[in-house]
Each structure stands twice: as structure tokens, then as C-alpha cells.
Amino acid sequence: MDTTTHPVKYLTNDEVCEILSVSECVGVVEDLFKDLSNTQMPPKIYLDIPNGDFRAMPAVVGSTAGIKWCGVHLDESGKKRKINIFAKVLINDVDSGKLLAIMDGESITAIRTAAVTGVATKYLSIPNAQSAAFIGCGNQTKNQIEAVTSVRDILTIKLFDLDTDRANALKNDLENTTNISSIIVYDNLEKCVRNSDIVTTLTPSREGYLEYDWLLPNVHINAVGADAEGKRELCESVIPNVDMIIYDNYEQCSHSGEIQYFEEDDRWDSLESVVSGRRLRDDQIQATLFDATGLAIEDVATGRYIYEKIIKSEHNS
């Protein structure tokens, strides 16, 4: 279908959410990471400002070129510190150069970030995982829970946040909108993560707080919060002791992710290698770690999928 004859599409965050679910995006991201040979992705460009930064994230995925322009601002004017994120995703057709769509980027970012967690969890966590802990209960966490529960039959969700009211608000939301059997809010981080098959960290911390001794021997960790130089959620004890360390992109993670503090060894590999089947989690593997910084190729692939879904719907109506 020739999509270049259609007018440019403009989508709001609400429209993106109506078109694409987290569980559907897990499939989009999984397909992307099966083969990255037809992609291009320069490093993120960071422009620092006093209370945050701006990020330019360009990429090419197959026949689509695109960029996400994102502003991250820390608002400390109120009683509580608040992180505001503003983003747009633009995609172009490679062959014609035509601009295809301009989309609000906040929902795309949240959905694809959760989706890649779902992909990593599918390939790296134990198949019979039943409990999942989520550290940090901000705007990302509900999507992250949807991603993990779309690939594993989770019976118990465990929540921790320094703001207990925020954790309880998320619990109430989940109880009203999901069929999860048990949702528990903890006021102690160690108690939350103990005996959890999957642990996902989602905070802006610059100091490690997750200790290896708290974790099950076969735990899978999704380290999502560290996405800029100086950020850190894992204590020194974690990375030296896990058996398999998988990153979404080495260049970005070694600069901005949890692995920025360590030297690479033979336990490290890419998500592409796992999804493509070149490297598998075997019976000898115990604890696993996925280090995610968020990639422009994910934004571009997701944006193109949304665009083509709209064109297909218009064609069939």
C-alpha cells in the first residue's frame, strides 16, 4: 500500500493510546529486535539546561526515518519534586522523503519503554514467574506492569515508592482496571523485592538502592530508570553477581545505563542477540539483568506501526 499519497497525520497522546496497547507494542518491539541490520541510530544528543535536558533521538528503521525531540524538566517549585517530559515523534518515508506523521511523543515513549521491558522479561525471566516487584510508582509503572503481565502469568504485584500515597493510588487503579490477583504496597524496599521473581526499577535515582543479597538466585531485573550519565538504581553488589547482563544498546547503556560503572565481560550481550536466538538463557543461568536506556529505533518503529495501522483502517472503512 502506498502510504506517501496520504496527508500528514497529526496524533495526540490520547489518540496514540486509543490506537496502540502496550501488549500489542510488545510484538512490534520484539519484531524490531529480531534483526537490527536494517537500522541506523546515531547517539542521543543531550542539551543540558539548569533543571533538566533536551534530547534529540534520530533513527532509521527500514523504510522509515524519524526523530524524537524530548524535553525533560525537573519542577521543584511545589511541595514535591515533579519531572515533566515533553516530546514529539516525527516520521518520514525514506524513499520519497515525505513527512508522514507528527505525533505527541509522551504516550509513544511510555508504551514502547514498557514494551521493551516486556520483550526482555519474556526472554530472560523464568517461565513460571509469579511475583513481580516494581520500584517507583510514577507515570510509567502501570504500562510496565501491563507489559510484564502480558508475557508472564503474574499472580502478585508488589509496589514500592518513597511516596506511599502514590503507590496506594496505583494499587487502587490496578484493582479497578485489571484482573491481577494480589497487589501489595510495601513501606520497606527490601521487603518488597524479597522473593520476587521479577524486579523492575523505575526511578530517577542517582544513588544505588537495590542490593543483590535481597534478591532470589534466579531473579530477573529490569533496570529502566538509569537513562542518563550519573543516574543509578543498582548497588555495587548487583552487576558483579548476576549471571547474564543484556543491554538494549551498548553505546547508550555504557554511557547512560547501569553498566556505565563497570567493565564489559563475557556475561554481557545485546537484546538483539537474545531475541534473534544467537544467545539463549539456558539452565545454567540464574540471575539476569536487562539494562534499558530507551532507543530512537523503538520510537520510529512504533510510530510507523501506528501510522500504517491508521492508513489500513482508513482504507478498509
Describe this structure in words.
The strands form 3 sheets. Strands 10-9-8-11-13-17-15-16 form an 8-stranded parallel beta sheet. Strands 1, 2, 3, 4, 5, 6 and 7 form a 7-stranded mixed beta sheet that branches. It has a two-stranded parallel ribbon with strand order 12-14. With 317 residues, the protein is α/β, with parallel strands linked by helices. Helix 1 runs parallel beside helix 3 and helix 2 packs across helix 3. 32% of the residues lie in helices and 29% in strands. The model has no long low-confidence stretch (mean pLDDT 94). The two termini are 15 Å apart. 45% of the residues are buried.
Descriptive keywords:
317 residues, alpha/beta, seven-stranded mixed beta sheet, 9 helices, 29% strand, globular
Rg (C-alpha, Å): 19 Å
DSSP helical segment count: 9
* Element pattern in H and E: EHHEEEEEEHEHEHEHEEEEEHEHEH
Overall pLDDT: 94
Side by side, the strands of the main sheet go 10-9-8-11-13-17-15-16
**What gross morphology would you assign?**
globular
